Amino acid sequence: MIRLERVTLGYNGRPILRDIDLMIGRGITLVTGENGSGKTTLCKAVSGLLPPISGRILVRGRDIYREDVEKPVYIHDKPVILRRSVLENIAYGLRIRGESLDRAVEIAREFGLEDILHEPAWKLSSGYQKLVSILRGIAVEPNILVLDEPLNHLDRRFRKKILDHLSENYREKTLIIASHREELRNIAHTTLEIIDGMIK
Question: I need a surface site. Which of 33, 48, 149, 196 has the fewest CB within 10 A?
Answer without folding.
Answer: 196
